[in-house]
């Protein structure tokens, strides 16, 4: 271990790593699982520093079968892979959170967006109609009259 920079926490049989173990590589990738004769053997998981993991069945250091899970919880599937392909570049979490793909505008997080009448302006709790100078809620119920603020500058002649 002193030459490779790895760490091993587990049992030894005849001087070889064997049994349930934790093996930490110098890259901070961790293997937690079964070892035989100093090799990954049986069920074990590689935990990567980025939060992803690879659960696998090993035989004398070689993978027999396994599945990769990204840090966000998405499991990799070789067939029918639907994420970040040539048509839809969104990541799994973006799809789960409702982010629209490129080319489909999304002005707010509200989906579908609120309908604002033509010529009116969204003001957070409703919409403002400049013709009537009234603010109505999104169900078109009266909220309040819009106030007009006039800023007057008072010019005074210079005394001198």
Query: Pairing-aware structural class of the strands and helices?
Result: mainly beta
State the shape: rod-shaped
Terminal CA distance reads 89 Å
Describe the strand arrangement of the main beta sheet, using strand numbers.
1-2-3-4-5-6
- The CATH topology of the domain at 7-69 is given as Histone H3 K4-specific methyltransferase SET7/9 N-terminal domain
**Number of E-type strands:** 10
The radius of gyration over CA amounts to 31 Å
**Low-confidence spans:** none
Counted by DSSP, the helix tally is 1
CATH architecture of the domain at 7-69: Single Sheet
* Main β-sheet description: 6 strands, antiparallel
CATH secondary-structure class of the domain at 7-69 = Mainly Beta
Proportion of β residues?
35-45%
CATH superfamily of the domain at 7-69: Histone H3 K4-specific methyltransferase SET7/9 N-terminal domain
| Helical content class | under 10%
> What is the mean predicted local confidence, pLDDT?
83
- Secondary-structure element order, N to C: EEEEEEHEEEE
């Amino acid at each position: 271990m002193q030459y490779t920079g790895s760490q091993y926490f587990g049992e030894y049989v005849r001087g070889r790593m064997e049994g349930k173990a934790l093996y930490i590589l110098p890259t901070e990738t961790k293997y937690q699982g079964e070892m035989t004769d100093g090799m990954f053997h049986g069920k074990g998981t590689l935990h990567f520093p980025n939060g992803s993991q690879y659960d696998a069945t090993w035989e004398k250091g070689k993978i027999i079968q396994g599945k990769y899970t990204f840090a966000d919880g998405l499991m990799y599937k070789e067939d029918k892979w639907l994420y970040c392909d040539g048509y839809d570049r969104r990541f799994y979490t973006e799809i789960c959170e409702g982010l629209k793909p490129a080319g489909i505008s999304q002005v707010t997080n509200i989906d579908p967006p609120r309908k604002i009448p033509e010529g009116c302006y969204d003001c957070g709790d409703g919409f403002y109609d400049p013709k009537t100078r009234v603010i109505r809620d999104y169900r078109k119920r009266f909220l309040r009259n819009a106030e007009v603020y006039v800023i007057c500058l008072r010019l005074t002649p210079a005394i001198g």
